[in-house]
Write a structure and sequence with these properties.
By secondary structure, the chain is of the alpha/beta class. It is built from five helices and ten strands.
Length: 170
Amino acid sequence: YAVNHKDSGLRIISLDSSYDNSGKGLIDMEQLLWLKDTLQEKAEKGSILVLHHPPCVGTSDPMRAMHGLINSDELYQIVKDSDIIGILSGHTHQVCATLFGDIPHYTVDSTAFGVGLDDQSMYMNVSVGMAYSTVDNGVITMNHIAFNHEIANGMQSPLAELMKLMETHA
């Protein structure tokens, strides 16, 4: 799925990485071929790729390795020389900024629960938040907003109540 923001010249591309409920993701061949074809035409100010599962070529991050795309290498071959200026993903419930080759890649907290890692295990925690991205002169920036405990508890409230909580704690 691709959306061209004609006023801004920016294209946003979203792919479905759902796979087999194992925690890992996969971009199927039909989507990879579509992406390759779509990226043949460059967007005026670049493209942003949005996935659920993080790509993980050459990572030492265990969370990405355990819960990333199993065909990250195939995806990289398509995006490495493209107009993609950033990749946004989730799934790890953690804030992380890294590179996918030379493309900036960001994951963000969840609004439900956080995930922590230590030498022995992976565990849930209360780290929750959200993020928004900005693009300026072809550079993507991720802005993270951590929710405090009161706002996190408000996540079960209707959206209007949540927005009021965020405004009073901003």
